[in-house]
Amino acid sequence: MTNRPPTVAGRVALLIRAGLIAGLVITGLSYPFAALAGMGVKAGAEALENMPEQLTELPPAQTTYVYAGDGKTLLTMFYEEHRKHIALKDMSPYVIKAIVASEDSRFYEHNGVDAKGVARAFVANQKAGGVSQGASTLTMQYVRMALRDSARTPQEALEATEQTAARKLREMRLAIEVEQRLSKEEILERYLNAAYYGHRAYGIFAASQIFFSKAPRDLTLTEAALVAGLVKAPSAYDPATKNQKAALERRNYVIDQMLKNNAITAEQAASAKKSKIKLKLSTPPNGCISVAPKHNDWGFFCDYFINWWREQPAFGRTPVEREERLRRGGYRVVTSIDPRIQRYAMGHVLEKERRSSAIAHGQVVVQPGTGRVLSMAVNRTYSLDQEKNGRHSDWRQDDDVKGNYPNTVNPLLGGGDMAGYQAGSTFKIFTMLAALEEGLPLSTSFYSPQRFVTRYITAPGPATCGIYWCPKNSSASMTGTQNMWTGFGKSVNTYFVQLEQRVGAEKAVRMAERLGLRWRTDIDRKLATKEHASGWGAFTLGVSDATPVEMANVFATLAAEGRHCEPMPVLSIRNPDGSHALHQDRLIAEPRCRQEIKVNVARAATDAARCVTGYGSARGGCGGWGTSSMVYGTLGRPVAGKSGTTDGNKTAWFSGYTPQLAAAAFVADPDNPEHLVGVGRSTMSKYTVAQTLRDALRGQPREDFKPPTDKYVW
């Protein structure tokens, strides 16, 4: 008869029958194998034969690192278990020697199960009347970690760690299997990257960072011995406690074992044991609330990034699944935030409105042609602590109700569930684009009186004439015949109400949707429906809410000559292995753009928007002035845009753009929309945008806008 090699389970069974595995250490007691769960030797061997042969492994959770647009400055990290896989060659040799000496001195001699070690442990435990020695090899410990990290359900996690005979036998069989397909070095590398060292540090990289603020390759002998000693009982030997006696004794035990294992010399051991424990503790950031204090203003961008991530189907079926992937996936994310532009933007925001003000002043900068969000600045501190916040600005609130200033985590600039702010006359851009798309040229003229009675029926109010809506202009000087150049440049309400009637209010609403606006309040959602949009006459005057991200991106679309891109907070996303993260064979971080409006429609709208800023139109007259002529005077290069205020100066906006950059700034009270910002703040957003674009583009070549063809002019 031909002798065939026994199966993996068979090899363990032979060890059992030979008496080499005479007992197992389980739940604090020593059991002869024949007594386990009522099984005899034969039954135990048969049970092993029937166990699955393969260890199913899932990648363990790893930390996701998020960087600024320079790819170097760490914005924050996301993790449930702080862990980063590194190669064995990137670890100090002392780490490897220490873990082998302390946990499995015969590691290089056994095949996954150390029969001599098991027998020795059984005898020692019998004499001690309890557990004095363990018998788990490094390979068996690694198997346990792999089963734990691969658990898909609580029951699987329990089975991977529960103290039972069946679990121990399973570890033995799988350990032998692992040794058949992995080298000793591979097992060590996986072990050291999976072990738990306390303080939420999983793996040697995290342990080195948390306890010593250094890379694993730089660990000294004493440091390596200290962290190696932690895997036995991280809490019991925690060196970060006031009483370091247990940690010191455990470290010195590891050093003694290294000497016994001939891993170090007697001189090295003696010197190392004399050393005191010296820690350089650090707490790795976790989430947006942990953004470094010097970059606290990046917290609002970080929050926007998370909300964007939660919407990406590539990372899971639900927002919860997607955020779990962020915290476990080990990605390397380079975001789109530009530290230089952010610094300029934040400086100009804060010099106009302090953080301690109930009035919020914020700005978003977007790159045309990609949709990448380069800056999100607001006069707030990103913090959950509202203990010292000012009183709520709504006088109807109780005296003890705090306002969201200076500390808040509310998404004031977009990306969350806040509706935004009424954007005023900036919404005239949607009516003009709809009209141009319908074939009405820039020269389309209407006599625009101070007050205009519309055909739109509305409820009685200050801007109504009986049952009709009758808006008026902000100045009597606007009375007269206007076209798109003068009507947009001077922001003539009665011109745009007539233009909206000519093209249809619903087309203006749909244009806004096409360019990225979303309706977040009940009234906006209702009025935007097919049944009501055609009667939404006030839409052109900006009675709907919008966010700064949305409005910056609308004008970025014009800067890109009608090419609309989704707002994008990332430049690249890489998997733990360095490959680019994909979804349906496309880079997840790739700009998502489409030609939403015709090139010459966008050029025509820009030609009119030049009248606003004082730069002047290429194809028509601006009527002598514009609402924001200081913008060109401040920026000093081709620029277009639109200002917007609401009734009583409740909000004040400006959205501006050059061919290279687009920005939108606002002034409002997020806590109390009825709180007036005041006439004195009406130009604040204009200067903030102009100054930020000026500084951001310093050193960049001057680029001009291209004029539209005659079809869209006359």
Structure write-up:
Residues 364-662 form the Penicillin-binding protein transpeptidase domain. InterPro entries: Beta-lactam/transpept-like, Glyco_trans_51, Glycosyltr_51/Transpeptidase, Lysozyme-like_dom_sf, PBP_transglycosylase, PCN-bd_Tpept. Residues 75-258 form the Glycosyl transferase family domain. The chain crosses the membrane at residues 12-33. In the C-terminal section; belongs to the transpeptidase family. By secondary structure, the protein is of the alpha+beta class. The chain has a domain at 16-50 and 83-274: Penicillin binding protein transpeptidase fold (Orthogonal Bundle). Helix content is 36%, strand content 12%. The strands form nine sheets. A five-stranded antiparallel sheet has the order 7-6-23-22-21, with helices on both faces. β18 (582-583) and β19 form a beta hairpin. The longest helix has 17 residues, at 165-181. It is elongated. The protein starts with 7 loop residues before the first helix and ends in an 18-residue tail after the last helix. The model is unreliable at 1-5 and 12-53 (pLDDT under 50).
